[in-house]
Amino acid sequence: MEEIRQPEESALQKTEKPQKSPVREMAEAVLVAVALAFLIRFFLFQPFYIPSGSMEPTLMPLDRIIVSKVNYWFSEPKLGNIIVFRYPVDPSRDFVKRVIAVGGEKVQIRNSQVLVNDKPIPESYLPQGLRMGDFGPVTVPEGQFFVLGDNRNHSEDSRFWGFVPRDNVIGQAVFLYWPFDRLRTLGGA
Predict the structure, then answer these.
(1) Is 97 in the active site?
(2) Where does the record place the Peptidase S26 domain (predicted)?
(3) CATH of the domain at 103
(4) Tens of pLDDT along 28-68?
(5) Which of 70, 145, 150, 160 is most buried, taking the most CB atoms under 10 A from its CB?
């Protein structure tokens, strides 16, 4: 029977690495954690809270959501997506609304029904019996979006201040994580 032996350490392996102090190891770990958190928040996912009731009943005031910045790297926002964007009138403010129409589509509201290209769109997320004033028709310019709050009678949206340029879109709301009893994914229409 042949004996199995462990390889002997080479001369290079025998040299000991200098010991790091516990403070230095802790500082390095904190720096790596901060760098990772910054990269994730800046490029991938960002948390937001909902300050108003303009998206009720889908999102309630003080709900907390995760917005994916990755979702629109290779595709564009589409009908029913809930997006977070920089408010076109004051880009220092962030808004959350639902995409109703994209560039080239015609939007109008008649008899409390939203029509895109003269066809009613399904909006199962709206409360029953919601009444809205007539609007439009308007045609969405290319590279821009028409957005509405789900709480149509208490929402400032594209009906009042116009379209959202693609460059203003931060990302898609994908997950509601607070409060825990309302924890869920946020899909499209």
Answers:
(1) yes
(2) 24-178
(3) 2.10.109.10
(4) 999 999 999 888 888 899 999 999 999 999 999 999 999 99
(5) 145
